[in-house]
Amino acid sequence: MSNQMVVMQPRPVMVFSDSDQWGSGICDCCDDVPECCFAYWCFACFTCIKAKKYGECLCLPLLDFCGIVPPITMSIRVSMRQRYGIKGDMCNDCLVATFCRLCVWCQMSREMKARDLQITLVGARNL
């Protein structure tokens, strides 16, 4: 009698939101008060942590503090719109990134939380 072991790998199941709009408005700070308070009291730390979570260099947002239009905030916002399929235009991104930078980062943080794609292994067992 032969011992035959069959191992089947579980396949990832991904559930995602297919909305083409931001999940929250630019001024919806009450949706996540602790995050917005953190951003208000330590903006540089907040942006660096969120950039790292988004997959960018940890210190990249520190380059935003030179110049009128914040290029890093704007580029990450445009990238996030592209990644999540959110409708919008660069003119609006430029305006909100320039005049509402803190609110933009809070909105992007809420969006990353809302659209965080967790991979769930269905049928996985501990061996």
Automatic annotation (TrEMBL):
Top-level lineage group: Eukaryota
InterPro entries registered for this protein in UniProt: PLAC_motif_containing
Similarity field: Belongs to the cornifelin family.
Record-linked NCBIfam families: A_thal_Cys_rich
Name of the protein described by the UniProt record: Cornifelin homolog B-like
Organism, scientific name: Cyprinus carpio
